[in-house]
Amino acid sequence: MRDAAPQTIYLKDYAPFGFDVREVNLIFDLAPNATRVTSRIRFAAKPDAEHPDFFLHGEQLKLIRAAIDGQEITPTLTETGLTCDVPDGAFTFEAEVEIDPANNTALEGLYMSNGMYCTQCEAEGFRKITYYPDRPDVMSTFTVRVNGDLPVLLSNGNPTDSGEGFAEWHDPWPKPAYLFALVAGDLVAHSDHFTTVSGREVDLNLYVRPGDEGKCAFGMDALKRSMKWDEDVYGREYDLDVFNIVAVDDFNMGAMENKGLNVFNSSAVLASPETATDANFERIEAIIAHEYFHNWTGNRITCRDWFQLCLKEGLTVFRDAQFTSDVRSAPVKRIGDVIDLRARQFPEDNGPLAHPVRPESFQEINNFYTATVYEKGAEVIGMLKRLVGDQAYAEALDLYFARHDGQACTIEDWLKVFEDVTGRELSQFKLWYSQAGTPRVKVEEDWGDGTYSLTLSQSLPDSPGQVDKQPMHIPVAVGLLGPDGDEVRETQTLELTEARQTFRFDGLAAKPTASILREFSAPVILEHGVSRDAQAFLLAHDTDPFNRWSAARVLATETLIGMITDGKTPGGDYLDGVLSVLRNDDLDPAYRALMAGLPTQSELAGVLADRGLIPDPMAIWRASETLKQAMAQHAQDLLPRLHSQMRVDASYRPDAEQSGKRSLGSVVLSMTTRLDGGELAASEYAKSDNMTLQLSSLGALLRAGKGQEELAAFYDQWQADRLVIDKWFGLQVSLAEPDQTCAVAQKLTGHPDFHWKTPNRFRSVLGPLAMNHAGFHHGDGTSYALLADWLIRLDPVNPQTTARMCSAFQTWKRYDADRQALIRAQLERIAATPELSRDTTEMVSRILD
Ligand code: 0A1
Ligand code: ZN
């Protein structure tokens, strides 16, 4: 094994570190293959710890020299760190180590990307930079000197000195090592400034590679809006003189919230109308906000240990979603988030990788940056807010910041502020953090004598290591509609706390139609006893925009399942319902575009499996295609008018209004292309002057089996733009027909621009391969083998990205015996690879279990 033997770490074993760290001084002498890191760290044994063991993490370091209080020592080195005898009381530990950033392809620790030095320390990367207690509950101030012959030399905090070939930084806010950052390179700054509510002047810089200056304005604007929003809504002010963001091409994730020096995957910050789509702009805005909001929820208040990851991530996702809802459309944001939750979190929660929002054990923490920790973690906060109310939520957050500023906290600390503010007891609610799996809520209705009764029963399936779970505290938002569509009972939150509970609504003149789980008030699967007629009624009348969309989704799902399992033809109720929404000019175009969407093929496979059926990927694909065709024909007369209404004549803005129009315009274009063979799409492509339209028209053409000329022209036009070429790769794989998908992906992996060691490029081909449901699950198993080949190849280079992409196989037990055997063979082949990383070993063994 290249990694140290896998070891399971348990939450229950948490023990504090025996020493305080009072001050960290670091000097970096940069050199691509031999960077010297000199550290001086002031330690003091904690008053209550008797002769604690002194252990510092350290991996892949060459120790040159170590000393305590100026005396050279010879510490004991292990695969994972260093131990030595230390004096009682306070002492200074010094070390000089050598590291090799140019050969660090794992992108963890200090590495190089296009000649630029960059760090990624979360979760446990700092130990690849120097010896240190690399755990989030050890917090210290840092002073850093960077020596290097490069124009830009950055670290955390405020700049204190700089000159030819050096820069010094001091971060006055105690922080854990995972928030450390250093960047050095030939970069250019897009600069601006922000004045905080109390009058602090903050210099803002977005550092990019020369040539990318034209893609900075939107990210900078999003940053300033985020800073203002956090002051206005949460009362949180920025706390340094500078806020720097750096864009880097080689990055495993979206971005990283290092104190005062955020590092971003270039795809998560760089954008111009010509090169980025509306969806890219919206994602960038959300990620900028997310990383900025971490300054308080994550940095000022951090996590005691990595089991508490949801403390910062769930809360920060929740906060960035609030921001997006405020600056764009709240219903559109909520629907998008639920689509995403069902696509990514539900499969995780209902398969072999299921784990609680706060996991209780792990081998490799990097494998737990999951949709469950992030997105379900955010849902849990949304439920808490709904249960306590907006006012108490605001008071609890004020108390959280006041009580815990500067601390490394737990979920217990978080819930305690809510208990203290509200006087409520939250032990049952806390089960959301410890019980894995998506609760099922079954709905039964009764009506008589003016009383409508709703009986809700909950159950929580077994998941790895967890059986016989307890009932959860589930907020179910419900409203009632009368026969003419009027709301006869406003939304109220029912608190489902028992296995089965009945709620009564009295004094009704006629049997109502219930709109249940409004705004998706809890991350559960509703098992409706509600009829198809009632769903069609809700689709036409529901006053809750989320549930109106949800009714369309339920009808679409039932329509497709009827087509798949019984060969039915698409129902008129669904097609008519969607058509009337599409032609309703009073509704936001972005919302109308969502109403016309179908559940993904993978989601349908999940629904079928949930009902005890074996999904046939080809049958699902065919039904989806047939329904899209039927929808296009049904809407035929409306399409030309809608197309011209959605034309945007003003100059490009990536805001909600314009992007909503383009999004409905793109739906219209897809439908039209099914009817006109690509005529409109070709003309749209020819005149497109923004990436949203260019990509949607190219996509429509490819889907119609046309567009090869445009595809080649697109490549020629954008050859020099790495982010656009990622799109060019991805589009071809995601739109390939099922029996072509593997061949298309295989061919692209042979393209000279397929720089597979860059995670964005690797993901641009292999990601869509796994996401193209019918292509990936093609009966011959070639796509499984292709993905496995590439994962095996990537693992020694970049274990983190490899391990994350293994989750493509997590749903394997849904499928038929032949497909299961094919996937198992690939998983076993990966598992048997010599020297497989700890990351991938853990993922594959959990999936196979
Ligand atoms: N904390 C970052 C995400 C992040 C997590 C891990 C990383 O490397 C293993 C990198 C980034 C966020 O939530 O934005
Ligand atoms: Zn985060």
From TrEMBL:
Cofactor: Zn(2+)
Pfam families in the cross-refs: DUF3458 (PF11940), DUF3458_C (PF17432), Peptidase_M1 (PF01433), Peptidase_M1_N (PF17900)
EC number: 3.4.11.2
SUPFAM superfamilies found in the cross-reference section: Leukotriene A4 hydrolase N-terminal domain, Metalloproteases ('zincins'), catalytic domain
Domain Peptidase M1 alanyl aminopeptidase C-terminal: 533-848
Domain Peptidase M1 membrane alanine aminopeptidase: 218-429
Entry coiled-coil feature ranges: none
Catalytic activity field: Release of an N-terminal amino acid, Xaa-|-Yaa- from a peptide, amide or arylamide. Xaa is preferably Ala, but may be most amino acids including Pro (slow action). When a terminal hydrophobic residue is followed by a prolyl residue, the two may be released as an intact Xaa-Pro dipeptide
Leader sequence residues: none
The Aminopeptidase N-like N-terminal domain, residue ranges: 99-179
Domain Peptidase M1 alanyl aminopeptidase Ig-like fold: 437-528
Name of the molecule in the record: Aminopeptidase N
Organism this protein belongs to: Ruegeria spongiae
